Amino acid sequence: MNRLQTVIEKQRGQLKKLDQTTLDLRTENDELRCHNEKLSTCNRDLRRKFRATQLQLHQLIDERAELTAKVS
Q: How many Cα atoms occupy the beta-carbon half-sphere of 49 within 13 Å?
């Protein structure tokens, strides 16, 4: 009987550890998901700014070409 109680206590301890590990992993997963959402938002904003800057660059290049053609 004593041996059976020891086994039961050991298994309870293992279950507690597994529950805590599961909780820790869920918390980490939630944090990573939140961080991923922030990075996705940041990436989207950077792509938008890049496209706007690229458009402005092309417009400036065209304007320079027109000015150069007028001077020549």
A: 6
pTM listed for this prediction: 0.69
Domain of residue 49, residue span: 1-72
> Measuring CA to CA, how many Å separate 10 from each of 7, 34, 44, 55?
5, 36, 51, 67
- Please give the Cα distance from 52 to 69 (Å, whole number): 26
Closest CA to 20 of 28, 8, 30, 31: 28
| Tens digits of residue pLDDT in 15-70 | 999 999 999 999 999 999 999 999 999 999 999 999 999 999 999 999 999 999 99
DSSP category for residue 11: H
